[in-house]
Amino acid sequence: MHAPLFPHDSYHTQHSPLGAFASFSIGLVDSPGGFGQSLRGAAKQNVYIGFRAAAHSEWQLLPFLTPPKSKESAFTGDTGVVQPPRGFNSLPPSDYERTLGWASDTWRADTSRFGFSLLSPFTEIPDPAKLNKASARFHLAPQLSGWIEYDNRTGTAPVQLIFGVGDSDNTLRPLSDTNPHLIGFASGTAYGYATKPTRGIELRQGFDVLNPKFRDYRGLSVIAGETALIFTVPAGQRRRFPLALGFYAGGTATTGLTTTYFYTQYFRDLEEVLVHGLAQHGRYTKLAAQRDRELAKSQLDADQKFLLAQATHSYLGSTQLLLHKGQPLWSVNEGEYRMINTFDLTVDHLFFELTWHPWAVRNALDLFVRRYSYTDQLGLSFTHDMGVNNFFSPAGHSSYECDNIKGCFSHMTMEQLLNWVLCACTYAEHTGDRAWLRAQKKTLLACADSLHHRDDPDPKKRDGILKHDSSRVGDGAEITTYDSLDVSLGQARNNLYLSVKTLAAWVLLEKAFDQIGLKKSAIDAASTADILAHTLTTKFETDTGFFPAVFEAGNHSRILPAVEGFVYPLFLGYEDEVNPTGRFAPLFTQLRQHIAQALQPGVCLDATSGGWKMSSTSKNTWFSKIALAQHVIRQIFPKAMTAAARQGDRVHADWQRQPGCGVDAMCDQIWSDTGITCGSRYYPRGVTAFLWLRE
Predict the structure, then answer these.
(1) Which of 135, 195, 142 is nearest to 164 (CA)?
(2) pLDDT for res 81
(3) Quick check: 252 and 258 in contact, CB under 8 A?
(4) CB-hemisphere CA count at 13 Å for 268?
(5) By the 8 A CB rule, do 161 and 233 touch?
(6) Hey, what domains does the chain have and what are their CATH numbers?
(7) CA angle, corner 619, sides to 9 and 388, nearest 5?
(8) Do the beta carbons of residue 658 and residue 4 sit within 8 Å?
(9) Cα 438 to Cα 452: distance, rounded to the nearest angstrom
(10) Which among 329, 362, 321, 364 is positioned nearest to 345, based on CA atoms?
(11) How far apart are CA 117 and CA 147, in angstroms?
(12) Among 678, 668, 665, 656, CA closest to 42
């Protein structure tokens, strides 16, 4: 078994409000972090968090800064060696304890007398178009809550605490200059942190915030970049001080489609966000504690709880709720790539969003139909994404897909057609939104027709498998969401993964058509599903006990996503369709054998690390898809979960807890042998692990 490269945990976590596309990231040892708006990774600000137990002792700081070399020489003309801040000890990981909760991140040190926590509370949110002002302000405020504390009840001298942020490229301003109800600092109008004005709190700003040399009439040096709040805890007392960390992006937020951030309807500026955050601090703290308790009480083991918590934090950091022509517009940005509503991710965020904010799924589906659908020679489909880096691409086109190529950046026409069907039917069934489903009658029928034609334009030649590429690819070839893997999962045509996903789409269409009174179409969908299931059984290699990953060119790769499509009927409770002795019994018998043999070391368990691999022929593995496959396998094929397979959770958690992935918060694409990320950093898709709570 591959041992972690580092003897301690070291990873950034994104701390983010829903819908702001903003994060405060910290946690990687000996690295800066801080505030970031629409970034592709962690910011590079120094974060000062710690304590000193006596007036002249060194500060004991959590290791989230790179001591800056003072810039004062640029002003004073000093030609000597410029010294970084002194008078502090950077705590090694062995001297503090970090606990990542579902909605919190807490550090304790000095035998737990010192504590610091950041809170990212989330809850069920009704349709924002129907929220009253008070509810909208509470649910959609672009702020984080936090606290810093010290238990000095046994002490004989005051203890000082520090929380601060240093940004040498963007000098911060004292908030008390513009709002007497706040004490803290802000970067222009974009972000800032504050606490409530009270006795025992001091503002610090200087080239060296720990030992400021220059002070104006307020005791500050406002041309310098390092800032902090200093809190004093008297001897004999225990004090906890509230913190609010806020973001504000006013004006135009995106181009292509001109939008503003939805929250700007309810908050005039950053100061109002911070005042609100402090006023509602108690409610946000209770909400975060509720989420933490839910995860803590679940049946997941410690590694699984960590993975879900880390994934949820990064998902929230990619979310963006916008206002377009007076209506909400929902977007989840694709992590480091920042593509808007990448459909491959929308279909995987589906399960989390249907629990906490189901309107978001409907909102994205409507925009795909209205602006990001197109018709090729075979029928209707949808684009891979809606744009990139806050630029909505022209109607009917994505930012990703290119013509006349094979491999990465080609079109995903089959994949996205399936994604719309699966998302739409799952949303309507799970929420009971029959009115919306009926309104999609024309689109659903067009999708079914398009699926048939991508099997074969001639009905007599159809066997259910999608095998005809879109005319959009030119002389290239269609690909799947697994674009950066080899042909085992990268090629769309005659692909095992897409075929099982197609089977799920027909099963869901059968139910949907029946519910809206389209009996003939329901019968056709049911018949097609049965034909496809039978076709798949003919592809099984009885001599090897495997399905080939691609039904052409003698492909012999073995893949775990062979079962991915069954997550949708499983989520919706369609018992016969996921019963190994039910409707698709012959296919399930073969899939059981396939998965049992795939989950062996050297096949789809990495021989070096023991981590799960999507394909036997690729070391590029994706955590989000591992989590999804684990859910399906544990529910439908539990006997395949051998001791070696179960040990994968520890491996996957160690990948994320170490700097190889941890430098970029939750990472999705990982080299399975080393645990080092190879793409998809700062990524939201790992929230597929939410499915585990249903087991």
Answers:
(1) 195
(2) 43
(3) yes
(4) 3
(5) yes
(6) 13-71+85-291 (2.70.98), 298-694 (1.50.10.10)
(7) 80
(8) yes
(9) 21
(10) 364
(11) 5
(12) 665
Antiparallel, parallel or unpaired: β 88-90 and 59-61: parallel
**pTM beyond cutoff 0.70:** yes
Q: What single-letter amino acid sits at 532?
A: L
Q: With contact defined as beta carbons under 8 Å apart, do 209 and 85 qualify? A: yes
- Mind listing the pLDDT tens digit for each residue in 379-429? 999 999 999 999 999 999 999 999 999 999 999 999 999 999 999 999 999
Could you say which DSSP state residue 255 is in?
Answer: B
Element (H, E) at 510: helix 496-515
Please state, in angstroms and rounded to a whole number, the distance separating the CA atoms of residues 461 and 302. Answer: 51
CB-based contact 512:425 (threshold 8 Å): yes
Q: In the sheet that 319-324 helps form, which strands lie side by side, from edge to edge?
A: 260-261, 319-324, 327-332
Number of Cβ within 10 Å of residue 488's Cβ equals: 24
Q: How many CB atoms lie within 10 A of CB 303?
A: 18
| The two three-digit tokens of residue 114, written as one number | 């010192």
The helix/strand/coil state of 437 is helix
pLDDT tens, residue by residue, 200-222? 899 999 888 888 888 888 888 78
pLDDT computed for residue 80 by the predictor: 44
Residues near 366 by beta carbon (within 8 Å), at least 6 away in sequence: none
DSSP β-ladder status, 96-100 and 88-90: unpaired
- For residue 153, give the DSSP letter: T
Report CA torsion sign: 23, 24, 25, 31: positive
CA separation for the pair 480, 498 (Å, rounded): 8
- How many other CB atoms are found less than 10 A from the CB of residue 302? 10
Through-space distance between the first and last CA atoms of the chain, rounded to whole angstroms: 27
Instruction: Write the DSSP assignment of 470-504 as a string of letters.
Output: -GGGTTS--B-S-TTS-HHHHB-TTBHHHHHHHHH
State how far the Cα of 609 lies from the Cα of 675, in Å rounded to an integer. 8
Is residue 624 within 8 A of residue 349, CB to CB? The reply is no
What are 305's strand-pairing partners? none
Contacts of 312 (CB under 8 A, 6+ apart): 102, 103, 122, 352, 687, 690
DSSP secondary structure, 54-99, as one string: STTSPEEE-S---PPPP-THHHH---SPPPPP-SEEE--GGGEEEE
Residue 362: which of 436, 448, 443 has the closest Cα? 436
* 611-643 burial: b if 16+ Cβ within 10 Å, else e: bbbbbbbbbbbbbbbbbbbbbbbbbbbeebbee
- CA–CA gap between residue 685 and residue 343 (Å, rounded): 11
DSSP assigned state of 521: H
Q: How far is CA 287 from CA 118, 195, 321, in A?
A: 13, 20, 21
Only one residue has tokens 């981590």, namely 611
Does an H or E element contain 317, and which?
Answer: helix 302-318
CA distance 183 to 188: 15
Residue ranges of the chain with per-residue pLDDT less than 70: 1-7, 55-56, 67-85
Are 346 and 358 in contact by the 8 Å Cβ rule? The answer is: no
Query: 547 with 594: CB under 8 angstroms?
Result: yes
Classified as helix, coil or strand, 179 is coil
Element (H, E) at 288: helix 281-297
